[in-house]
Amino acid sequence: MNIALKICLGAVTLPFFAVGCSNNPPPEHPVETALAHPVSTVETKSASSSIAEARCAREDRCENVGNDKKYSSTQDCLNRIKADWADDLNARECPGGINDDQLDECLKEVRNEECSSPFDTLSRIAECTASQICRS
Questions:
Q1: What is the DSSP code string of 13-73?
Q2: Higher-confidence residue: 121 or 31?
Q3: Does residue 9 form part of some domain?
Q4: In this predicted model, what pLDDT tens digit does every residue of 54-93 receive, in sequence order?
Q5: Count of C-beta atoms within a 10 Å radius of residue 54
Q6: 109 pLDDT tier (thresholds 50, 70, 90)
Q7: Burial class (CB in 10 A: 0-12, 13-18, 19+), 34
Q8: What local confidence, expressed as pLDDT, does residue 134 receive?
């Protein structure tokens, strides 16, 4: 083998061996990036969507979804609830993230709301206030 080729192969393979033979242990704590704990808009919007879905589950339980009913379908219910409750739902879009336990309580209360109750605003349910659902 000629000398130039040996030098070239050594230069290419040496860094790989050096990395593989390193005695440096991995860092104790993984390097965190800006994406390690993001507060995503998906998370906050999914809270609003989850609340709308819970409300439509309540409407279905109360027999308000279907032909000749208040809502013609589940999708009709979701569209109308999101439009009617836009201000309430937007207030639950939390820039600091969602308190999952409190959101679960809110969803439970929305689903279990009495069929005879006029369910006109989300703020009627104490567990569903922005101060309860949103992390500070």
A1: HHHHHHHHT--PPPPSSPPP-TTSS---HHHHHHHHHHHHHHHHHHHHHTT-BSTTSSBSS
A2: 121
A3: no
A4: 999 999 999 999 999 999 999 999 999 988 887 776 766 6
A5: 21
A6: very high
A7: exposed
A8: 83
Domain for residue 105, yes or no?
Answer: yes
Has residue 21 been placed in a domain? no
Residue 74: its pLDDT value, please? 96
Residue percentage of the chain with pLDDT more than 90: 34
List b or e across 67-85, with b for residues whose CB sees 16 or more CB atoms inside 10 angstroms. eeeebeeeeebbebbbeeb
Owning domain of residue 73: 41-133
Residue 69 lies in a domain: yes
The amino acid at residue 41 is T
In total, how many domains does the chain have? 1
The token duo for 24 is: 């440096």
* DSSP single-letter state for residue 117: S
Q: Quickly count: other Cβ atoms within 10 Å of residue 101's Cβ.
A: 10
For residue 121 the two structure tokens come to 């605003």
